[in-house]
Amino acid sequence: MIFGRIDYLNLLPFCLFLKRYYPRLLQMSNFKKGPPSAINRMYKRRVIDAGFISSIRSRGQKGANMGILARKAVTSVLVLEGEFQPDAESETSNALAKLLGLKGRVAIGDKALKLYADGAKAVDLALAWREKYQTQFVFSKLCYTSGGGLIKRLEKRFFRRMTRRIPQYILQDRAKKSAIAAEEIGAYLNRLEYRIDKKAAKALKKFLFLVKGL
Length: 214
Known about the structure:
Helix content: 40-55%
CATH superfamily: Periplasmic binding protein-like II
């Protein structure tokens, strides 16, 4: 199986889970890294068999009840002041900004988290969605074209074994690479959720319905 991984801090707990519980999978598989838009393209071209696909591209795809979501503020998906400017690394967030009628520069991922940590004035897209629709927002979903049995087993074990307690040496290493304080990275990961339950699935369905009109 070739797995596509979004190269952001938001998947750090999942990557550590794989390293601990599926080391053989890591050795046998080829991993493709990149921002969400690149993972979407690789998935569409079948360069990868599975990956965290942007919500807007998950329609009609086989998937696990697993993704990246936030109930309130996420702090890594922002719209900054200024003229509207989409983020080339995103598709879902650009569409969400348009859907919510927000003007400004869209920024996602680690660079957005750094802007937030530095006190940039911006609208948090997850929070804006929450305030309008009173539900969480699903940013991506784990989808697959093959290897469904493995994905389902992985999902089940992840929810049993997942931990947000990231070793300090890993936090410090990622802090050095991202220029974001280790404490902020830890707080950020606590704002994220990974289980797409019935309410989250309903929220995702609502988003996909609404963006059809854009």
